[in-house]
Amino acid sequence: MSAATTNLKVMKILHTSDWHIGRTFHGHSTLEHLRVVLHALVAVVVERQVDVVVVAGDIFDSATPAAESYRVLTEALRGIRDAGATVIMTSGNHDSATRLGFQSEFAQLAGIHILTRPEQHSEPITISDAHGPVHFYGIPYLEPSLVRHLYPDHELRSHTQVLTFAMRRIRADAAGRGGRSVGGRSVVLSHCFAVDVAAPTDTSEASDVERDITAGGLDFVPMSTFDGPDYVALGHIHGRAKLSDRVRYSGAPLHYSFSEAHKPRGAWLVELGAPDATALSDPALSDPALPDPTLPDPALPDATLSDPALSTAALSSVEWIDLPVPRRLSVITGTLDDLVSDPSYAAYEGDWVSAILTDRVRPMDGMRRLQQRFPHCVLLEHRPVVTATATRTYAARVKSKSDNEIIGGFLEYVRNGVGPTEFERTLISDALSDQRARDSVA
């Protein structure tokens, strides 16, 4: 399918993903915050004269979005189109492909291409500039159990097998269109969990949200699966990441977990030049804060811009564009009295707050007191300061205590400092005496 033609020397593509419209944050709506961010994204499209905006999956957070979620999406798409950019978006594992793709044939007439059907992965949206055509291949989220019947002659039992199959078809289609020999360039959108973004042997760096989705069944996919295209716009990982110069995750536009608080929010601005433009001018390539998971996996073939198959890539520059964070996420630690009174915590009063209380005994009514100062405090954890005495083993700590003292201490702990009443002490003593009598008979 052919779309608009531009006469620019480079084609500007804004890569974003994982909008998760309709997601709540600890029971609070994020729609207004997302509106702010998407409005800023539209401003980037205007200011930087972006030609194409690609959204790599998880447009909605639910397969059954609320009406207001559709309104937020409509506002964003209208703003992007009014700014003159073409929109190409694919469904993710959170989306209902059927609902998201409803009336997509009408939307494409307005320059909004919504790719949700499995067979569309090898049917490119073609946009031409001064250097020739750019073929955009959108791979909808392909659940193996739901798509293998479409291709019964192929073994499609894992995400790696499905995406390997899809990419082979894409490369064949691109070659059939003449490839770079006629100025053809290609961009692929995919929603998957590619290797080296979150190491499979250590999930400690994965955010809570990503870890939840992983538990839902997404496989790791080797980066080499995406050999060939000039740029691969990935979605699913909520923090920005670079597998190679031409294979990247943009991350989500909002923070959806405190484990994501340290990750910047924004989008990649990608420029495609002539097919032989191999030099990169990416200010983010040397950014020490950006994960650089480009070391080859010994079990997988290396796939970098040095590969002969990629040596004529048209990627001319990649730039990270920051988007606003409407409300920061902060984790604060201290005693309850310090947190609610110390002036040094004033900077967090407007943030989403997760509080860790270090009081020896869990304070009564801690959340209410915290929310008087931090109205957006949504999490509270009691983590008493460990003293030298507390570092001893449990056996060592209770060795010198009587059974009555151990039970009384337990009740005091679970009751936020309130120990057993006299009546309860009597019951405990009677029960222990009865048990000792039984033990002596036995």
TrEMBL record:
Keywords: DNA recombination, DNA replication, Endonuclease, Exonuclease, Hydrolase, Nuclease. Residues 280-302 are annotated as: Disordered. GO terms for molecular function: 3'-5' exonuclease activity; endonuclease activity. The keyword Metal-binding does not apply. Pfam families: Metallophos, SbcD_C. InterPro entries: Calcineurin-like_PHP, DNA_Repair-Maintenance_Comp, Metallo-depent_PP-like, SbcD, SbcD_C. One of its GO terms (biological process) is DNA replication. Residues 11-132 form the Calcineurin-like phosphoesterase domain. Residues 326-412 form the Nuclease SbcCD subunit D C-terminal domain. Residues 290-299 have a biased composition (Pro residues). Transmembrane segments: none annotated. Residues 280-289 have a biased composition (Low complexity). The keyword DNA repair does not apply. Belongs to the SbcD family. SbcCD cleaves DNA hairpin structures. These structures can inhibit DNA replication and are intermediates in certain DNA recombination reactions. The complex acts as a 3'->5' double strand exonuclease that can open hairpins. It also has a 5' single-strand endonuclease activity. NCBIfam families: sbcd. Heterodimer of SbcC and SbcD. This is Nuclease SbcCD subunit D. It comes from Glaciihabitans tibetensis.
